[in-house]
Amino acid sequence: MRKLFSVRIDTTSIILYLFTFLIFTACNEFKNDSEGIIDDFISVTDSITEVVETVKILSASDINLTKEIQFEKYILDDQYEYEDTIRYFQWNKIKDKIAHIENEININSDSKKFVVFSNYKNMNGEAPTVPDFVRNEYRRVSDHYGIERYQSVPLYSIQGDTVLVRYGRDGWIAKIIDNDTTEMIRVKGVSFDGEYLIPNRYLINWGDSIKINQVIAVDVTNQNISVIEKRDNTWNILSMNPATTGVHKPPYASETPIGIFAIQDQKEKMFYTKDGSNEIAGYAPYASRFTNGAYIHGVPTQLPQTRIIEWSNTLGTTPRSHMCVRVASSQAKFVFDLITVKEAVVVVID
Questions:
Q1: What is the reported pLDDT for 4?
Q2: Which of 43, 64, 221, 223 has an alpha carbon 20 to 30 Å from 259's alpha carbon atom?
Q3: pTM of this structure
């Protein structure tokens, strides 16, 4: 007869074994998951570190100016005598404007679209009358910034209802903030502060990838002009000469406005009329227009004379033109031949 053996099962031991197994398995899974989470966190942190880049905001001290004079006629020193005073080139002011241009246009320009305000002779329509306008000494409608309605563009508030708040000068530069195909375009100023809405018809689209490499700096206080061109990371001074700017003399002559303006047009001969008439009085050679009817040009020739006049003894003395910047005719040609639209601006300082 076969003997049967009975096995006694210890329930307590089995429960303890299962509990230990589960804890061990859970700990290993948590360890593996934790290592994955930590690895992922380090990876994300590294990615963020790689993406974030600081863009340095340039100041005047970051702009290097080097003299590489190419136009040597009538050259002036950094400081020079005029009658019983000393005049000079305000390089720090000029460098400050160049730094502004670098920051607003040249740095990361690929991601921006630029426009130029355009209303020469009201060709794109007369701007509406701004509320609370004033009439200046010329009896013309003007806003409280001193900008006349004639040949200007209307700037509207971006807050709520479309409200006309001021005028913008012909030749000012701005960058588009939103859509550029709507009737009203939102822009941020390069030549001015703030953001505004402006009707599309007053804008010349400069597109993107714009680089300003040429600056014509006009000083209305010291009556001088310098031409500066960028090569690599250095801005080179190509000329330093006397100039004559606009004079405040109602009803026809007015000051050359302060600011940053785009070169918009060039004419080998810019014909001008007699004050208060449509009769041609003569021409100015090698004229480059930057705002309204203001050009950089050579010495005017009055009819019936027709040959180009090279020099005038009034250059570099006191303001006396109608708004233009008058220079020696050979220097006007130097500027005329050098500059390139979309690469050149005129900076007028006081």
A1: 39
A2: 64
A3: 0.84
